[in-house]
Amino acid sequence: MCPRSRTLELSMDRSRARSRSCGDARQATEPDRTEHDRTEVPMVTAPCMTATDKATGVAEASKVEIDKSDVNANSLNVDQFLQPQWWIPEVDGVCVGDHRFLQVLGEGTHGRVYKVADQLCGGFNAVKVIRKNRLKSMDEVYGIAGECNTLAWLKHPNIIQLRGAVHANQNFYVFMEFAGNISLHNVLQTRDEQIGLDLKIARQLFNQIADAVAYCHWHGLAHCDLKPQNIVINEDGTPKIVDFGLALKLGWPVGNPRGTWPFTAPEAAWPCGRPWDLAKADVFSLAAVLIEMLCGTDKLFRMFGWMSQTPLNLCRVQEMVAYLATPGFLTTSLSSELGNGALNIAPMITGMMNVIPLKRWSAKVAASFNW
């Protein structure tokens, strides 16, 4: 077993106990939640900034309540949202306000993610710096507001927490809980290509991730981009789902592809303009993540007989559907790498990857399944 997996195993009991404690606390304090309770939104304040930005929910002395009715932020006043607080000092790659960037954690299309010290509470935060000169449309601005809106009211031990947001002159800054810079994808890459995590570790990680996804669905939200790269493993082995930039409210009419191939459900990868069930697509992606946890990176490509990093097209989607619809194919593939261990896991994965969304398992059922 590699050192990283050993570290995960040693810390997993602590993380599982803490997650169970958090879960028990939620159940004890929220026995009879109504539909209104499900959409109750907490206040959001800026980390340490001195300026008030009501459009983004940022303030030091005041607190601004984020809209409760629309997690996609379409109800936000875009004109206000676009007004920068030009007096907030910012130096690219160095600091914003009193926050000095300590380390680059990652880089995306619109900018970088940095580690910063939390001046008020101690410890560290992560800040996503989004360069406004890289934004190409108003949809991307809505996406920033939507992600902040979403993270503001999701409170779960396995979901990254929002600390605040700042709209300065040059950039948008989204402050989040710092959970380390090791993703599940990084962990899997440290192992041989066809060797996954220890079964015990995979089960404990998956149960926590599935519980977080079920929590999102219960609150009427779908992540829409579940993949190993969007699951961070912190120092004590606790997984946390990150990057809610594509998240949507359940029931939202979606006819365009959404997610990352090949972790995307067939109906979401090639919808042809037809709406699809966002929650059931999340469950498919969750099963795809589990397969790579158990069998190593690129297992999905190997399973479907594709070359590594085969691009998405209609033919590939049809091949995926034909494979998963054939009884025994998935179980045989898992057994070839997991041996007898696949016998307990295959029924769950088969149920989660059913090509008929209406027959697909829910995240709640998957999280409680004993394997």
Number of domains: 2
CATH class of the largest domain: Mainly Alpha
Average of per-residue pLDDT values: 77
Q: Roughly how many Å is the radius of gyration?
A: 21 Å
Q: What is the name of the CATH superfamily of the largest domain?
A: Transferase(Phosphotransferase) domain 1
Overall 3D geometry? globular
Going across the biggest sheet, name each strand in turn.
3-4-5-6-7-9-8
| Coarse structural class | alpha+beta
The profile of the biggest β sheet is: 7 strands, antiparallel
Portion in helices? 25-40%
Based on the coordinates given, report the CATH architecture of the largest domain. Orthogonal Bundle
**CATH T-level topology of the largest domain:** Transferase(Phosphotransferase), domain 1
Low-confidence runs (pLDDT<50, min 5 residues)?
3-78
Determine the N-to-C terminus distance.
21 Å
**Secondary structure tally, helices:** 13
Tell me the β content: 5-15%
Number of strands: 13
**Order of helix and strand elements from N to C terminus:** HHEEHEEEEEHEEHHEEEEHHHHHHH
Biased composition (Basic and acidic residues): 11-38
Family: Belongs to the protein kinase superfamily.
Organism: Effrenium voratum
Domain Protein kinase: 99-371
Walk me through this protein's architecture.
Belongs to the protein kinase superfamily. Residues 11-38 have a biased composition (Basic and acidic residues). GO terms for molecular function: ATP binding; protein serine/threonine kinase activity. Helices cover 39% and strands 15% of the residues. By secondary structure, it is α+β, with helices and mostly antiparallel strands. It folds into 2 domains: 3-27 and 181-368, Transferase(Phosphotransferase), domain 1 (Orthogonal Bundle), CATH 1.10.510; 40-177, Phosphorylase Kinase, domain 1 (2-Layer Sandwich), CATH 3.30.200. Helix 1 (3-29) packs parallel to helix 6 (199-218) and helix 11 runs antiparallel to helix 12. The protein is globular.
